[in-house]
Write a structure and sequence with these properties.
It is a single chain. This protein is of the alpha+beta class. Helices cover 71% and strands 7% of the residues. It is built from 16 helices and 4 strands. The chain has a 4-stranded antiparallel β-sheet, with no helix packed on it. β3 and β4 form a beta hairpin. It is flat and about 130 Å long. The chain starts with a helix and ends with a helix.
């Protein structure tokens, strides 16, 4: 209801200068109670832990019992949701009461476990039997408190709207705390006691405790935090599909480096020649192993090429990362730009709506003509169309950002305008594009070596032995080696020439790429200086002038010094200044972005 009242006051009621609107009654009490609750809850949680620590003289035992707090909060939140109750001050007080009651079950269990340590050497057996023996006391402790609050939870009498949220939180929290404590607390007890003699907590214990505390609802922190540019870039690096594909391409190239030693398949054969007759007048059966090798230096050259390709893929991944970061930054700035435009048109919409109503009333009373009424209505409709168009552009930009982040849920972008820092490369050799061309130049050089070494002879080795099934047969071993000499090398010579020309081509492309980057940087820096002048003017004079135009227009129109047409013209001038500034600021940030992520 207060939101509706605030909207009406902002759009339809003109508050004189020097006056303000405050909201009292229950709303004011709610705001004050919420502020006190944001202080009381952390203090209560801290005091519970301190008391547990002094009671057991052990941080380990205190943390184990403290685990009942997030476990109980789960049930309290869940039952509020099931009963469709909002989080109220009463519910907050209920959480404080619940946290104090919930630790009782933990105290009962831990005290019993510690009393049984001298009787059992097996921790798992200890906690199993101990939990079983303390099942009835734990259920009695929880049910007594839960049943005591149950009448309040289902009450419908006078004052029930205060009692129901408090009792609902306590009943729901005790149900889950009791059930989960019987399972979670024994597990934590085993994990802590197993590492009792170590200097610190084990990773499993730390992880368990952290997961439990993450379940604790935060009272003072907004769950839907707005997204900053830095957070968006971090999300893109871990979720963007193009970056993940580039990373897989790099991994494939790295895995392929060993393929340079691509030795041909080994041939195992068996044969006979009836003319090959042994001393016992029986022809021999021959089996053997044959292997073909390229000249050894060729394998080394091929491996160098594959290593170069892996480095090139890494540079391509860096370029893709640079490109994605630039696209995410641009989409983020575009979303913020249309947010600012939306805020501007929202302000103008409320402003024109007030004076459109005023113009309509003045026409009804005969103080003005029909033209002024039409002009006011037309201006209001124009602003609302611009407002709708801006909202559509904002939705498109936000969807583009979500696509780049591979994000499907709701996304809230920070409304604080981002100011990018200008980063100018002093050494061009560090640019990923230059490093990419250096990599393919090295690869082209190694490829020339590969083509040249293909002219070297291949080596063949053949090991065989023959025998026969006849009487007094002997074994006749044999060995054969040879060289495959390329007598017809015209085709390979053409491949060498082509590889050398490609090497020269890449060198020229690299030089041209660096010249292009330097030229674009100079051009963008000049453009940036011009845009900076526009922004400096607005921040120094234009913003003040725009505000003064609106103030003077409102004052003069109220006092009757100007008519509505003149008033609309002054508002138009103010709007033009502001819109020009917002557009210039947006283009200025995009220019910085182009310089920082200089990719062609």
């Amino acid at each position: 209801m207060v939101d509706d009242i605030q909207a009406i006051v902002a759009n339809e009621i003109e508050v004189p200068e020097g006056y303000r609107v405050d909201y009292g009654g229950q709303f004011e009490n709610l705001q004050q109670a919420r502020s006190r609750l944001m202080i009381a809850v952390p203090i209560a949680l801290f005091l519970i832990f301190v008391l547990l620590y002094f009671a057991f003289s052990s941080a380990r035992d205190a943390i184990m019992i403290y685990s009942a707090i997030p476990l109980s909060a789960i049930g309290g939140v869940f039952l509020l949701w099931v009963r469709d109750m909002p989080f109220s001050i009463s519910a907050g007080v209920g959480f404080i009461a619940l946290f104090g009651i919930a630790v009782l079950n933990g105290i009962v269990l831990i005290e019993h476990f510690k009393s049984m340590e001298s009787k059992y050497t097996n921790l798992k057996e200890l906690v199993f039997i101990g939990a079983k023996e303390r099942l009835r006391p734990v259920l009695l402790t929880a049910s007594a408190a839960a049943l005591g609050f149950l009448p309040m939870a289902i009450s419908s009498s006078a004052g029930a709207e205060v009692q129901r949220p408090l009792a609902t939180v306590v009943v729901g929290g005790l149900i889950t705390a009791t059930f989960l404590t019987l399972f979670v607390l024994p597990v934590l007890y085993v994990l802590f006691k197993e590492k009792k003699n170590t200097s610190g907590l084990s990773p499993k214990v730390i992880t368990s405790v952290l997961l439990l505390f993450l379940a604790l609802p935060t009272f003072a922190q907004d769950q839907n935090e707005s997204l900053t540019l830095e957070a968006a870039l971090e999300l893109a690096e871990s979720r963007n599909l193009q970056l993940m594909a580039a990373q897989k391409s790099t991994e494939a190239a790295v895995a392929r480096q060993s393929a340079g030693w691509n030795i041909d398949k080994t041939t195992v054969y068996y044969g006979f020649d009836k003319n090959d007759i042994a001393e016992n007048n029986v022809y021999n059966r021959v089996w053997g192993v044959s292997q073909q090798f390229a000249f050894p230096s060729l394998y080394g050259a091929q491996k160098n090429v594959l290593q170069d390709i892996a480095l090139i893929k890494q540079q391509e991944a860096e370029l893709e990362k640079m490109k994605v970061r630039a696209e995410v930054s641009k989409a983020f700035l575009t979303v913020q730009h249309f947010q600012s435009l939306g805020d501007h048109y929202e302000f103008l919409d409320s402003l024109y709506a007030v004076f459109a109503n005023a113009a309509n009333r003045r026409f009804e009373t005969g103080e003005t003509n029909y033209l002024e009424k039409l002009t006011a209505a037309g201006k209001l409709q124009e602003i609302r169309l611009k407002k709708s168009e801006t909202a559509q552009n904002y939705a498109v930009a936000l969807n583009q950002l979500k696509l780049l982040l591979n994000w499907e849920d709701e996304l809230t972008v920070s409304r604080t305008l981002t100011d990018l820092e200008l980063v100018v490369l002093e050494e061009w050799d560090s640019h990923p594009g230059i490093q990419y061309y250096e990599g393919i130049a090295i690869q082209a050089s190694h490829q020339v070596q590969v083509e040249k070494r293909k002219l070297l002879p291949d080596i063949s080795i053949d090991l065989f032995r023959g025998t026969n099934p006849g009487p007094d047969a002997k074994v006749y071993p044999g060995f054969q080696t040879g060289l495959s000499i390329p007598l017809f090398f015209g085709s390979q010579k053409s491949e060498i020439n082509a590889a050398q020309f490609q090497q020269e081509q890449i060198a020229l492309q690299s030089e041209g790429y660096q010249n292009l980057l330097q030229s674009k940087t100079t051009q963008l820096q000049s453009q940036l200086a011009q845009q900076e002048q526009v922004i400096d003017y607005y921040e120094a004079e234009g913003k003040t002038l725009s505000e003064q135009l609106i103030q003077q227009a409102q004052l003069s129109y109220k006092e009757g010094e100007i008519d509505f047409l003149q008033y609309a013209q002054l508002l138009e001038n103010s709007r033009t200044i502001t819109l020009h500034y917002l557009q210039s600021r947006y283009e200025y940030q995009l220019t910085i972005l182009k310089i920082n992520y200089l990719i062609d």
